[in-house]
Amino acid sequence: MSLSRRDFVKLCTGTVAGFGISQMYNPAVLHALEKAAPNVLWLQGQGCTGCSVSILNSVNPKIADVLLKVINLGYQPTIMAGEGEVAFKHLYKVAKEKKGQFILLVEGAVPLAEAGRYCVIGEVEGHEYTMAETTAELGSMAAAVVSLGTCAAYGGIPASKGSVTGAMSVKGFFDKYGIKTPVVNVPGCPPHPDWMIGSLVFAIENGLEATVKVLDSVGRPTPFYGKNIHDNCPYLKYFDAGTMSPTFTKKDGCRYDLGCKGPSTNSDCPTRKWNGGVNWCVENSVCIGCVEPDFPDGKSPFYVAG
Ligand code: SF4
Ligand code: SF4
Known about the structure:
CATH superfamily of the largest domain: NADH:ubiquinone oxidoreductase-like, 20kDa subunit
CATH class of the largest domain: Alpha Beta
Bound molecules: iron/sulfur cluster
Number of domains: 2
Distance between the termini: 48 Å
Largest sheet: 5 strands, parallel
Strand order of the largest sheet: 2-1-3-7-9
Helix content: 25-40%
Order of helices and strands: HHHEHHEHEEEEHEHEHEHHHHH
């Protein structure tokens, strides 16, 4: 059932108890609703589409309400009905019409090897648009860019050891070519839906200047990435006592000896949890540090035999 705008406002102001942005950002979502929905364009580069899948699983608020009532999404390769040349022309049309006013979301890394041809994302009248070309052109026209996922934020798996594609993060790409548009990083493999929607809502509500002020040294919004996982882990008491779990499933022990990267990872996973607040990685496995700039190479091996 689709919510009316009024119902959605109620949801966002806390009549429905829940986790994540329903707790932290209800007032911000409400204020965002009172403003004109900003134009948002979403590019997908070198990635697995997992960030799109993650955001589509947003529990509270539902993604349909975000898409229809909070933002004006003009292009999203996974969910839009349009395709091919018509859709790609529309992408550029919106970008030109809303120059300096739209937010560009980028999912996936930007490959530069072989003139960027490892990732062609559209074709118009025989011209193949590479991810690099389109990210440069639309990134230069955007008011701000949000890099969704660790591939876009830091290069991630496409830029890991052995890569032949010359994959780069969006910020690294901008720095290389002198593109000055501000970039907000929302890493994760994939990022939590709350991190993506919450960061967008924070930027819409508070403006770019205030958003830049809450970023940490690697460009992440501190409301979501400001705490160390290990320091907030329910297994910390076992770590402090030196009690290590020999298996993923044994509950009364820390997972450090199994390869847990919580001590070198910053996010609110232990308190926010995933899948609507049901569970999180360390409950049944380990943290592999997916939100950090050195993921995956610096976090490998992910698992260690206990
Ligand atoms: S399970 Fe991981 S994050 Fe939790 S206390 Fe142990 S090492 Fe730290
Ligand atoms: S617990 Fe670690 S690996 Fe799991 S989502 Fe959070 S940061 Fe990523």
